[in-house]
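Supplementary Note 3. Input sequence used for the single-chain structure prediction.
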Amino acid sequence: MRKFDVLGYFGTWPYWPLRHGSPDEILRLMDRYEIERLVLGSLRAIFSDWEEGNEEVRRVARRHPDRFRVAVTINPVMGRDHLTRLEDYRQDELVLGVRLYPIYHDYELTDGGDILEALLARIAEARWPVFLPLRLMMNWGLPVLPIAQVAGLLARFPHLTLILGGVNYGELKHALPLLRAHPHVFLETSCLQLRGALEQVAADIGAERLLFGTGLPLQNPGCEIAKIAHADLSEMERAQIFAENAIRLFGGRL
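The predicted structure, written as discrete structure tokens, is reproduced below.
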């Protein structure tokens, strides 16, 4: 069964050493778990320089265009010429969308300033996906974006294509109403550990709104694959989650 992973990271992780952080090690993990393609985001872009971090991860993707795609990170409160950079990124066929990290870049989605509003308006108009992780990985010590901010964002931009990630126990009950109300919102699976959660989303919202993500190399991709492989889902639903939904969402760019 084909696998397209929409959540991967590359770069320096500030909390502890990464065992599989180099491009070659990431590729070995992908081969081991039969992941055909991975959407990378930059850790440097989260924790220090978002522009240089994006360039770093784009260089990695250019060296392996058959395996990697990129979700660029934009920090609306640092840097300059944000809309110009957005248009530059949109011209890169390896870039699939934008990742936002309000907690780490010190702004709120409900009041992010004029630059954030302009960026989101342009992204929504272009029907470009926004990747919005509530948490970076499933670790209780890391901060979590309040899902109420996501609701406020969608109230202002109801047609925004949003890939909501980092959802686990406490957030799922709040995420489900957003998914019901906004057909352009998708749920990425990497942090979803609640027993029966995949089945619940598939039954309530539809398996076509779930996207396979691992968070590698911060998380073990084998665990993320196993929870989908052993969930009480049909083979058609599994195929949708592992690859078909991403192919439909990203089209020829994937």
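The chain has a mean pLDDT of 95. The domain at 4-253 is CATH 3.20.20.140 (TIM Barrel).
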